[in-house]
């Protein structure tokens, strides 16, 4: 389950004693601005080329994620504020936060008419967890009993003992230990079901997936590097029913081009205004913009496998680089004040967020201390003569080139070294390079929450072996704190422990937190009021044309 901020005030044991039932609850995402719109006309939105074929357990980036969340449905989904709403779940019950019984609604089907059964969930989760399938989201199944065996290197096992099919509409999930956070995850992409037909040729399926969400991929709908066209799925019966005739994502290589297209009404929705538009977007799109914080942040990853950043000297260098960055100056000059400097590794919109963690002075601009730390590190292990500190980033994203260039200049000026942007043309190419674990310097990173939880900003990114752990960070002490937090009896108790885990990160700095994200989105004259969700993504299904 993914709880809203208000419902997380309840203790986990109390919340989970209640079942999620199919009746009642908010349908989410609605707004009066869409009333009376043209529900048969398709809309257009900006997008990026997905890094991988469209498989639930192998989609970890936003280009693929926004498509997956429209063509698939899981047990639950979330409204604009992150409040839980049932999709395929009739009920999710537990008495001890370790053993779950999940019942599905009857009569639900995939877009090709194939019935959705408990086996579709169990098989998909087992596929995602198995080492032999090398799925990037495998880490999300680590809580399930038996994951350690199927995910072990060179393991040939393909079934976790913690998953059992009871009948067509019922399955059970046994965790290795009680976890306060597990129910919050079940709306994430990794937990979507797959039809049996997917396994006949999984690669081909990923290019043309059959899903169960409010939309389906149009025939020949994925034109690589150009567009992805979705049409309504008439077999979908959930709370996110499409209020338009489809969504076409235009895959832009330049955010400025997308901004220009919205201005000229050639694109309907843009989910991130580029720096060139930040000064004037409120007047350019009077009455047609949003500017709101969401559960996301920006960081710079410094891989643990880089020799210059190992040991005590490496730790001091990371801290020196962090203190060399004048975050507020970059926010003011490049983003026109539309972000907030980070003081932790999570997001202020989450329950449990603490702006006063011990040790977070390392995230504050302090050029004098930065120079002292760099000099001290050089006495232990000298920085290689002539070496350039590079920051790898795609330059097709809004503001990446501008802010990283500015950040590199600050680092170079403060520390007296060479620092520069290593530009990569597209987001997909940059992710492929980062995943190869062959970087010779740092890399840009940004995280958009999968579900509203502190743990989601910690475990998947910094846990040993985690799927989104770009820098190969590994700390036994940090891993132990994560496990302790997950085993807490209440979400509140767990959050306190997760914040203790953050104190370890503040010393090690596997990444350098930069700022918290806010979404600046705009839309054309062709559509009605557009609503953005708690994670900064437009509620595409709720948009109607004029």
Number of strands: 17
Mean pLDDT: 90
Radius of gyration, taken over Cα atoms and rounded to an integer in Å: 23 Å
What structural class do helix, strand and pairing data support?
A: alpha+beta
Termini separation: 35 Å
Give the low-pLDDT segments.
1-35
Describe the sheet with the most strands: 7 strands, mixed
Strand content: 15-25%
Shape: globular
Helicity level, as a percent range? 25-40%
Number of helix segments?
Answer: 16
Tell me about this structure.
Strands 11, 12, 13, 14, 15, 16 and 17 form a 7-stranded mixed sheet that branches. A 4-stranded mixed sheet has the order 1-10-9-8, covered by helices on one side. Strands 4-5-7-6 form a 4-stranded antiparallel sheet, covered by helices on one side. By secondary structure, the chain is an alpha+beta fold. The protein has helices spanning 12-17, 62-71, 118-129, 147-150, 202-207, 255-263, 275-278, 281-284, 311-323, 327-334, 367-380, 400-415, 427-435, 459-462, 476-486, 491-508; strands at residues 43-47, 76-78, 84-86, 89-94, 99-104, 163-167, 170-174, 215-223, 227-232, 247-251, 269-270, 289-301, 340-341, 388-394, 418-424, 442-448, 511-523.
